[in-house]
Design a protein that fits this description.
Elements lengths: L7 H7 L27 E6 L17 E7 L3 H11 L3 E3 L2 H5 L6 E4 L3 H13 L3 E5 L6 H13 L4 E4 L6 H11 L6 E8 L20 H5 L9 H4 L7 H4 L7 H4 L2 H13 L7 E7 L11 E7 L5 E6 H7 L11 E6 L3 E5 L2 E4 L2 H5 L20
Parallel strand pairs: 1-2, 1-4, 2-3, 4-5, 5-6, 7-10
Antiparallel strand pairs: 7-11, 8-9, 9-10, 11-12, 12-13
């Protein structure tokens, strides 16, 4: 039976991450993700069928998993992915997908402002989940997600793929094994944000586009091209505060998590003080940071600089040697190592050669990506 369409008031309540239970039934799934289902395959539901859902097709490449349903408030997108993933079912409303007892886990690839509300709903429905980065658009959302996942004992995987890249693991293991000495300087950067965009002309909502559900907990705003119809890096959902924090989080989550992988391993924790500057557009539809330059200081006085890639050109030492849109540079007493999504380099050929045999300290090996040389 089709579920009742949520009102704007009901959807808005979900934005806090504190009122999802009323909208989603508590369901024990047919199996726990990672154990044998009756079909001997974990059944996966894809929630969000835009650009970021493309990688989800890999579930069908493994004997242990199969995509059986997709969901998106834009009919054209969900039907396209239904066909591409050979899914049996498609839904406009994510609550209908979560209500299926034969779905064990969900892959959440919606706009950022829906990440946490749907993750909370999935946990309450008894589903395990993979959720795209960034996790949420507020600290309140992030803390709520952690609490609900712990309470319902769900498997939660966060979409920061840099930990699955062999070359990034190599770069960290060189540092872990002391080949650059004690780390004295840390630099992290991500692609700059976008400015511009226009809220006009206001357009009619196309057939098959459930705009209320697309907006979800975000404020009511007029439908227009740059908010709703553009794909790629200038997609409005990445650069409007109603839906995201901008690339400082949307892309910054990757190199920051990459750095934290190393920091956790050595017991460094997180910085204790933060200060910085940034540029927010004063005209146009896009209103998230385009440029930023932050100084983040750890308890022992070591400083981490976090910035956009244009600012990095004038701040990061040796930037011309890698010239990448994102990355992490660790500078030690006797050398340096830098790694980014597409590759890595170091202050000497000798250090690079140590990548495959750095010493006794190693990080977890993941098969998610191949190395980049």
């Amino acid at each position: 039976m089709p579920r009742k369409k949520m009102s704007r008031r009901e959807i808005f309540k979900m934005g806090s991450g504190l009122a999802v239970a009323a909208a989603v039934p508590s369901i024990v799934p047919s199996s726990v993700f990672g154990q044998s289902a009756p079909s001997n395959r974990a059944h996966i539901g894809i929630i969000g069928c835009g650009d970021r859902s493309g990688a989800a097709g890999v579930y069908n490449q493994y004997a242990k998993s199969k995509i059986i349903a997709v969901c998106d408030p834009i009919k054209e997108r969900r039907l396209q992915k239904k066909n591409a993933f050979q899914a049996a079912y498609d839904y406009n409303d994510f609550r209908e997908l979560l209500a299926r007892e034969d779905i064990d886990a969900v892959h959440i690839a919606t706009a950022d402002h829906w990440h946490v509300p749907i993750s909370l709903a999935a946990a309450r429905a008894g589903k395990d989940m993979y959720t795209e980065k960034p996790l949420g658009i507020s600290i309140e959302q992030d803390l709520a997600a952690r609490q609900i996942v712990d309470t319902y004992d769900r498997i939660f995987q966060y979409g920061t793929q840099h930990r699955s890249m062999t070359h990034i693991r190599y770069s960290h293991e060189i540092v872990l094994n002391g080949h650059i000495g004690a780390v004295k300087e840390i630099y992290v950067w991500a692609p700059k944000g976008e400015s511009g965009g226009s809220a006009t002309p206001v357009l009619p909502v196309p057939d098959g586009y459930d705009y209320d559900l697309w907006l979800g907990p975000a404020p009511q705003k007029p439908f227009c091209r740059d908010r709703n119809l553009v794909q790629g890096n200038r997609n409005g959902i990445f650069h409007i505060y109603d839906y995201a924090l901008g690339f400082i989080a949307g892309w910054g989550a990757h190199p920051l998590d990459q750095l934290q992988w190393w920091a956790d391993e050595v017991g460094r924790g997180i910085p204790v003080t933060y200060e910085g500057t940034g540029i927010i557009p004063t005209e146009g539809l896009f209103d998230t940071l385009t440029h930023w330059n932050m100084t983040c200081t750890y308890a022992d006085g070591v400083v981490m600089r976090f910035m956009d890639n244009e600012t990095a050109r004038t701040v990061v030492p040796n930037y011309n040697k890698f010239n990448s849109g994102d990355g992490v540079l660790l500078v030690g007493e006797t050398g340096w190592v830098a790694a980014w999504r597409g590759g890595w380099t170091a202050s000497s050929e000798e250090l690079l050669r140590k990548g495959k045999d750095p010493g006794k300290q190693h990080l977890m090996v993941s098969n998610g990506h191949q190395t980049a040389f």
